[in-house]
Design brief:
- It contains 14 helices and ten strands.
- It folds into three domains: 85 residues, Arc Repressor Mutant, subunit A (Orthogonal Bundle); 152 residues, 2-Layer Sandwich (Beta-Lactamase), CATH 3.30.450.40; 95 residues, Heat-inducible transcription repressor hrca homolog, domain 3 (Enolase-like, domain 1, 2-Layer Sandwich), CATH 3.30.390.60.
- By secondary structure, it is an alpha+beta fold.
- Helix 2 crosses helix 4, helix 6 runs parallel beside helix 14 and helix 7 packs antiparallel against helix 14.
Length: 354
């Protein structure tokens, strides 16, 4: 914001108006803006030559650029950042947008994962971008754990939670497992698990294994560790990120399709999930990343609007975001993301999932 204030201080009222109109026109049409177009839109009567001089000054400041020789101007990434920081007034979401989000949340009676899926779909439809919803970890108390052998190299871990949910995970057990060692591992975990969440169970498991080495053999110990590890890894990555509406980005006329596909390939491989949540956690409220301002979008030419959501204890447990072209309608999308994040936080807390 200090940089934005510094740049604003170097601009006259006329240059601010020229800059604002260039950016607003570009965000609406995606096309370069010429001086003759601006002469018809300016509040004061000025010549096209005067407008060209002002645009050259803005180009010198790094705020505008020319995509082609003799073409009009478009905002640079620095220009878009200045516009977002210094010109966009963030209001409440439009009533119609709020109603669509509220309707999505009110019509779902299923589990939280299904609800967040519907919310992501609605958010994508409302903003015409791709939505990202990071679901919270399942922190309900565990009622029962069971290991089921499917093949020598495949097993299933089944978790039954106190709130009635049942979840399954496939994983590769350590070599040499037997039905007896699997029962022993399950018995060991069930003795520890009752009334504890997954994170709480993992916190006490290591100490318990050390203190009870004589009561659990090495094979069962490896199974306990690998079974819970694969569950935790799945919960932190693949199962936690919901991406909807990616076709909205691929359909944009000025989109680099290959780069967008590369971005989503990265997301699908879940290499940058932690980074996504970190982006949300580094500041309060909605954060806006334009183009290459973060590593997720250094090549894709996209912008991210992201907001964390919190539980009743004000702890960040997930995030809601929208990916769109850099010419996103920030004034509309930012309030929508903020509103959705607040509702999701209340909803998750009400359902007792965290």
């Amino acid at each position: 914001m200090d940089k934005a204030n510094s740049l604003m201080s170097e601009m006259t009222d006329r240059s601010r108006e020229v800059f604002r109109r260039v950016v607003e026109s570009y965000l609406e049409t995606g096309e370069p803006v010429g001086s003759r177009t601006l002469t018809r839109a300016m509040q004061e009567q000025v010549s096209a030559a005067t407008i060209r001089n002002v645009m050259q000054d803005l180009e010198y400041l790094g705020l505008l650029g020319s995509p082609h020789v003799s073409a009009g101007r478009v905002p640079t990434q620095a220009g878009l950042r200045l516009f977002v920081d210094g010109f966009v007034e963030m209001a409440s979401p439009a009533a119609t947008d709020r109603e669509r989000i509220d309707a999505t949340m009110g019509q779902n009676e299923g589990d939280v994962a299904s609800l967040l899926d519907h919310i992501g779909t609605a958010l994508s439809g409302i903003t015409r971008g791709a939505s990202i919803v990071m679901a919270p970890k399942a922190e309900a108390a565990i009622r029962h754990i069971e290991f089921v052998s499917l093949a020598p190299d495949r097993a299933l871990v089944v978790l039954v939670f106190a709130d009635g949910q049942v979840e399954n995970r496939l994983f590769r057990p350590p070599p040499g497992q037997t039905p007896s060692s699997m029962r022993e591992a399950a018995n060991f975990l069930n003795a520890l698990a009752e009334g504890r969440s997954m994170s709480e169970l993992r916190a006490v498991m290591g100490a318990e294994i050390l203190s009870r080495r004589q009561e659990i053999d090495s094979l069962a110990r490896e199974l306990v560790e690998s079974g819970l590890a694969v569950w935790e890894n799945a919960g932190q990555s693949q199962e936690r990120l919901i991406v909807r509406g990616r076709s909205n980005l691929l359909d944009q006329p000025d989109t680099d399709v290959d780069r967008i596909r590369s971005l989503f390939d990265d997301l699908e491989r879940k290499r940058d999930i932690a980074e996504f949540l970190n982006l949300a956690e580094e500041g309060d409220g909605v954060r806006i990343f334009i183009g290459s301002e973060n590593k997720l979008f250094s090549l894709s030419g996209s912008s991210l609007v992201v907001s964390p959501y919190m539980n009743a204890d004000r702890k960040i447990i997930g995030a809601v975001g929208v990916i769109g072209p850099t010419r996103l309608n920030y004034g509309r999308v930012v309030p929508i993301v903020d509103y959705t994040a607040q509702l999701v936080g209340r909803l998750v807390a009400d359902r007792g999932r965290v």
